[in-house]
Amino acid sequence: MTRDNVSRNSFLTERSLPTHPYLPPMALLAIRGVCKKFLAEGKEMLTLKDIDLDIEENEFVCFIGPSGCGKTTLLRIIAGLEEATRGTVYLDGMPIGGPGPERGMVFQEYSLFPWRTVMDNIVFGLELRGVPEAERLAQGRQYLKMVGLERFESRYPHELSGGMKQRVAIARALVNHPRALLMDEPFGALDAQTRNTMQSELLRIWQEEKQTVVFVTHSVDEAIYLADRIVIMSARPGRIKDIIDIDLPRPRNRTSPDVNLIRDRILSDLRSEIVTC
Question: Could you say which architecture CATH assigns to the domain 56-82+96-276?
Answer without folding.
Answer: 3-Layer(aba) Sandwich (3.40)
